[in-house]
Amino acid sequence: MSEAKKLQKEAMQVLKDTSRTFYIPISLLEPTLKKTVASAYLCMRAIDEIEDHEQLKPETKQNLLNAISTLLKDNFDATKYRGLLEQHEAILPEVTLRLGDWITVCPNGIVEKVKESTSVMASGMADWARKDWCIKSKEELDDYTYYVAGLVGVMLSDIWKWYDNTETDKELAIAFGRGLQSVNILRNQQEDQVRGVSFMPDDWNRDDMFHYATTNLSLADEYMKDIKNRNILLFCKIPLALANKTLKALKNGREKISRNEVEAIVEQATK
Predict the structure, then answer these.
(1) In this predicted model, what pLDDT tens digit does every residue of 111-140 receive, in sequence order?
(2) Cβ–Cβ under 8 Å, residues 150 and 178
(3) Which domain holds residue 88?
(4) 68 shares a domain with 6
(5) Helix segments in 73-136, DSSP class H
(6) Quick one: 6 and 75 in the same domain?
(7) Which H or E run contains 160?
(8) Which of 14, 39, 40, 184 has an alpha carbon 20 to 30 Å from 153's alpha carbon atom?
(9) Distance in angstroms (rounded) separating the CA atoms of residues 265 and 49
(10) b/e sequence 198-235, b meaning 16+ C-beta within 10 Å
């Protein structure tokens, strides 16, 4: 097996270990898109694990994320990157330690766009680490969800455009990301409170966040109307259907949806 093929195989395995939600739709993409979206997702997940890490201090997160953002703006130096993480290596996951590999897997024609979006994300996450994730208003929630999830939508829109000239609305792509992220915020609310973090604006209750999630997920439906490629459409349909089903379960007092429900959603989407 060639080094490139070996890396691709490892990327899919790390993806499977890292994200139940995105592994399924990515694995259903045709080979070029599968390789591209998997590597792009792993790049963003690599820095997300730093932003989310329970053992790293906010100041450490801010410094690491700013430094990574700078590295991504140039010819990415994997050795410098590993040096940056060296003293935290024991507590960081494989997906983060191997950012250089995920960049290598990404095809030449789109890798710069992926690096650019990931760099902007890292910089935005660093800023929110500096603010200690203190969200006071809807505007601040919009800003936070843009950096941690809306940029995934922007990056995917760039990939669709590169792949077969599929044009999508960037603002709707951002809303798609915000919708998925707000479902995560609702799902993890108690867990976050235990560690002293709240992503709810000051004057909001849970119903306000449900409204925010529903509004953004309905814009995700609009986003998909521009997509004619059936393979890309299938990829988008699955996380949206999972998010809507999870939102319904949360409204009914359940913590998450079952594996059987996930399988039923995937089966329905792939018919």
Answers:
(1) 999 999 999 999 999 999 999 999 999 999
(2) yes
(3) 1-120
(4) yes
(5) 78-85, 94-97, 99-105, 108-130
(6) yes
(7) helix 151-164
(8) 14
(9) 27
(10) ebbbeebeeeebbebbeebbebbbebeeebeeeebebb
